[in-house]
Design goal:
The complex is a heterodimer. In chain A, 34% of the residues lie in helices and 21% in strands. By secondary structure, chain A is an alpha/beta fold. Chain B has three helices and four strands, in the order E-E-E-E-H-H-H. A four-stranded antiparallel beta sheet of chain B has the order 1-2-3-4, covered by helices on one side.
Chain lengths: 264, 95
């Protein structure tokens, strides 16, 4: 379930359609304080953060609950530090951060699927990592090595990063990666939601094994101690679920725990 | 760059496109239909939409017909891009 979104009343107009769907516009300083203390999980959205900063410095105790803040502007270091004493996570449109255009971002925040979409991110060329932020402000670090290219496909250009398609695609130059491929690999909750969204479901152990095998870029022949024929039989469902040693070996070679295979 | 299979006009002008991206969830093989920030996945094996959301009914039948017209070429390109997971039924591979 998504966290509530909170907006200061005077900023409502900035967020157009989003503020129309939000019933938590905060009028007074007391409203802000009450909302902060009452709710354990909230997402605050602001552009002109001056009033929020004034309230935070005077009235808010450090880190109550799981409050996150999305700022539609850059933050000066001192203000960021202030917010970081109060909010569990602060995401701002600082220099180097690429994000969806504001209308798309507002649409995304209004979507019930926002945790499964990306609002933007930044590239750390030295650490060879792409940092991306989901619509619930959760951060994911993605090593450059994750962005593999199919034969004949373009190589990712990490100097040219953008999130497109309303938060569903990562573009790196001419290269594109589907966000669902990333979330499918990283988040068991996303895999569950993805199955619920599916029209055709394959909940078998074999189906999960195949999805995970392909995610790891492995051929059936690549498993030590298990023949390709045996893998094919499991994937087809001829073997409902392997036992003991085989299951453990499969899991080890796929770098998950035995119980995790079925979540894929 | 993704492999695009743009539908005929007026659908491109209206923001519709069809593509295979470089990094996808590979199973099952599919194309992605896009329109103004919304994406639909269409299964190349069953030739049906894969997800309930966004509603498959929002995709113009002409765009789906375009995919069906181009299916042989789309399958050829998918198989070349993702040889570990060809569109042909996996059972066929084992026989």
């Amino acid at each position: 379930m998504n966290d509530r979104i909170l907006i200061l009343a005077e900023e409502a107009a900035l967020f157009g359609a989003l503020s129309g769907g939000v019933d938590h516009l905060l009028q007074t300083d007391d409203d802000v304080r009450a909302a902060y203390l009452k709710s354990r999980r909230c997402m605050w959205v602001s552009r002109d953060t001056t009033r929020l900063a004034l309230i935070a410095s005077k009235n808010l105790e450090p880190r109550k609950g799981h409050h996150r803040l999305l700022v539609f502007a850059a933050l000066v270091p001192a203000r960021r530090c202030l917010f970081e004493t109060v909010f569990e996570r602060v995401v701002a449109m600082d220099q180097g951060m690429s994000h969806l255009p504001t209308p798309e971002l507002v649409d995304l925040l209004g979507s019930e699927d926002r945790q499964d979409l990306l609002i933007g991110g930044a590239v750390d060329l030295e650490a060879k990592t792409v940092m991306v932020f989901r619509g619930n402000l959760e951060a994911l670090s993605v090593p450059f090595s994750w962005f593999t290219s199919p034969p004949g496909g373009p190589l990712p250009d990490f100097h040219d990063f953008e999130v497109i398609d309303g938060g569903q695609t990562i573009r790196l130059g001419k290269y594109e990666a589907a966000v669902d491929a990333l979330l499918y690999e990283r988040d068991a909750g996303f895999r569950k939601r993805s199955r619920e969204r599916a029209l055709e479901k394959d909940d078998s152990f074999g189906g999960a094994l195949k999805r995970l095998r392909l995610l790891r870029g492995m051929k059936r022949e690549d498993f030590d101690g298990i023949t390709a024929k045996e893998i094919a039989r499991i994937e087809r469902g001829d073997v409902k679920k392997p036992h003991g040693k085989t299951l453990k070996s499969l899991a080890g070679q796929l770098r998950v725990s035995p119980g995790e295979i079925e979540t894929y | 760059m993704p492999i695009y299979f743009p539908p005929p006009e007026p659908w491109v002008k209206r923001g519709w496109n069809v593509k295979i991206a470089e990094k996808e969830c590979l199973e099952p093989p599919h194309v992605t239909i896009s329109n103004k920030g919304r994406l639909w996945r269409w299964n190349l094996r069953s030739q049906r939409f894969m997800d309930k959301k966004p509603p498959p009914g929002d995709v113009p039948p002409e765009v789906v017909a375009h995919i069906q017209d181009q299916l042989l070429e789309i399958v050829r390109r998918w198989d070349a891009y993702y040889p570990l997971n060809p569109v042909a039924r996996p059972e066929d591979d084992d026989e």
